[in-house]
Design a protein that fits this description.
Blueprint: H1 2-23
Length: 61
C-alpha cells in the first residue's frame, strides 16, 4: 500500500509540472497575464520541382 501511494504521488508531481510551465510564457515581467504571442509560422517544406510529365527539373530560384 505504501509503495502504491509513493508511486501515485510521483506520477501526480510529474503530470502537474507541465501545467505550470505552460502558463508562464503568457505573463509579463510583473506577473500579470498578457495576451500570448502567436506561434511562428513554419516554413513550407521544400518540394522537388517537376515538369508537366512528372519528371524532375531544375527549380527556379
Amino acid at each position: 500500500m505504501r509503495k502504491i501511494a509513493i508511486a501515485l504521488a510521483a506520477v501526480l508531481a510529474v503530470t502537474a509540472t507541465p501545467m505550470v510551465a505552460q502558463a508562464a510564457p503568457c505573463k509579463d515581467a510583473k506577473g500579470k497575464f498578457v495576451k500570448c504571442p502567436a506561434p511562428a509560422a513554419k516554413a513550407a517544406p521544400k518540394k522537388a520541382c517537376r515538369d508537366a510529365k512528372g519528371k524532375f527539373t531544375k527549380c527556379p530560384k
